[in-house]
Amino acid sequence: MAQFLVGLTGGIGSGKSAAADHFSTHGVAVVDADVASRVVVEPGQPALSAIADHFGADILQADGSLDRAALRQKVFADAQQRQWLQQLLHPLISAYLREQISAAAAPYVLLVNPLLVESRQHHWCQRVLVIDAPESMQLSRTMARDNNSRQQVENIMRAQASREQRLAAADDVIVNDADLAQLHLKVDQQHQVYLSLSRRYATEKMC
Ligand code: ATP
């Protein structure tokens, strides 16, 4: 891809969205993998018909949109069905993301994906930025934001890559263990680094 691409990842409630929102105030283009995974199963998209054919029409809500909770239930305890779904959606999500990245007009693009490492999209990126927060803060922030129980959040944390696995893939780390003003300051500093790296990247591409 022609653009300088920064992959932004982190565990649940680490502060990815808060960091990405602040990067975007600097004019950085933000491409979000969670958005992509919703867009490819919107009504009218071929993936939704394939899912309804495979799992039955009761996977759809009355208005024809995907019943995400019902789908989660179907694949939760069934590795084979989960694999079927992943094989259907993964290429579609990748294609959508690549399209969005190519179309972005900005000094550089931020690809936000909680599963950046798991989906191997970190290989697309010139840099990988991990937002890292102590697990106790991930828990308390997510519980406060989503009104979830501790157990629910802990289950999600266990299903994600470990902190060590994410950090092993990181070129840069922002530790989000203080207030939002501190996070913004760190993002400001990191943005300056990416601006100069992206300029150098663009110059090298021209030569
Ligand atoms: P998810 O993976 O669940 O989408 P995330 O990594 O995008 O989460 P955010 O939604 O950015 O995390 O942050 C989780 C919650 O914690 C939000 O309500 C956010 O406003 C809050 N938060 C993030 N960073 C801080 C901070 N430094 N101080 C106070 N609150 C914060």
Topology, element by element:
Layout: E1 5-9, H1 16-24, E2 29-32, H2 33-39, H3 46-55, H4 68-76, H5 79-103, E3 109-112, E4 127-132, H6 135-146, H7 150-159, H8 163-168, E5 172-175, H9 180-206
Parallel strand pairs: 1-3, 1-4, 2-3, 4-5
Helix pairs in contact: 1-9, 2-5
The site of adenosine-5'-triphosphate (ATP) has 17 residues, from helix 1, helix 6 and helix 9.
Structural features:
207 residues; alpha/beta; Rossmann fold; five-stranded parallel beta sheet; binds adenosine-5'-triphosphate
Question: Could you describe the 3D structure shown?
Answer:
By secondary structure, the chain is of the alpha/beta class. The protein has a single domain (5-206), classed as 3-Layer(aba) Sandwich (Rossmann fold), CATH 3.40.50.300. Helices cover 56% and strands 11% of the residues. It is built from 9 helices and 5 strands; from the N terminus they run E-H-E-H-H-H-H-E-E-H-H-H-E-H. A 5-stranded parallel beta sheet has the order 2-3-1-4-5, sandwiched between helices. Helix 1 packs across helix 9 and helix 2 crosses helix 5. It is globular, with a radius of gyration of 18 Å. The structure holds adenosine-5'-triphosphate.
How many individual helices? 9
Helix and strand sequence: EHEHHHHEEHHHEH
Unreliable segments (pLDDT under 50, ≥5 consecutive)?
none
Overall shape: it is globular
Q: Kindly name the structural category.
A: alpha/beta
- What is the count of structural domains? 1
CATH class: Alpha Beta
- How many E-type strands? 5
CATH fold label: Rossmann fold
Query: What is the terminal-to-terminal distance?
Result: 16 Å
Largest beta sheet: strand ordering = 2-3-1-4-5
